[in-house]
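Title: Prediction job returns without error message
Component: structure pipeline
Severity: low
Priority: P3
Assignee: unassigned

Description:
Job completed but the reporter wants confirmation the result is attached to the right record. Sequence as submitted:
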Amino acid sequence: MNPLIQSYGKWLLLLVAIAIIAEVVWNWKNECKVYEKKETVANLSILVGHVIFKVLLTGYQLFILQWISQWQFFSLPKNALVFGATFILVDFVYYWYHRWSHEVPFLWGFHLVHHSTQQINFSSAYRLHWLNGLFTPFFFASLALIGIPIDWIVLSISLNLLYQFFLHTEMVGKLGPLEGVLDTPSAHRVHHAKNPQYLDKNFGGVFMIWDRIFGTYIKETEAPIYGITEGKVGYNPLKIMAFGFTKLINKTKQQKTI
C-alpha cells in the first residue's frame, strides 16, 4: 500500500479516537446519556471490521475507477478550479448514492447497518456495512468518465466522509445561517431519526443545497428518535451486517407465496 495512504489511515484513526474520547468525557460530565456500553462496543467492533475491509478493498476500488477512466471523454488538468469542481461533483454524486441507498431495497440492505444505531455519537459514524466498498466505485465512475483525475476523486470522497464523521454528535446544536446550506450535526440528526416527518430527509454529505433543490430538506424541529422503523437489531456485529438482507430475503419469499 502507498505509504501516504498508510500514514493518512493512521492519522485518521488517531483523530477518530481523540474525538470519541472527548465526546465520552463531555457525555459523562453533562450526563447526556448519548453513549451506552453495549451499543458502543458494537460500534467499535464494526469499525474494526470496516478498517480491515477498507484495506482489502482499496486496490479493487482503484482498479474499477482506473478501468472505467480508459473511456474518459476528456482529460482535465490538475488545478484549483478542477479540484473545487471535483469536490462539489463528488458531493452531488454522493447525494444520489445516499438517496438511492434509502430507496432501493438492495442498497438499503447495506445502508441499514448505519441507521440501526439507536444513539448518535462519534462511535456510530463508521457503523457501516463491511462490503459497501464492492459497489461504491461504480457510483463515482461518471466522474472518471468526464476526465477528473482519479486521485482527486478519491481525495474528495475521503474529505467528504471525514467531514461527515463530525456530524454524528449531540454536542453541537444548530449553527444558525449554516443550517440549510451545509450539512450540520442538526441536519444529520434529522437524517438518522425515525420520526415520521424526518424519514428519508437530508441526504447531502457536505452541502444541503441538493436536498433543497430536490425537496428532501427538513429542519430539526423536535427531538429525533434514532434507529430503524423495524426496531432494535441487537449488538452482534454479524447479525447487524446480515439483518437487512435477511429481512429482504424473507420479504421476497413472502411475496412469492402470495
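Comment from assignee: result matches the submitted record. The CA atoms of residues 175 and 184 lie 7 Å apart.
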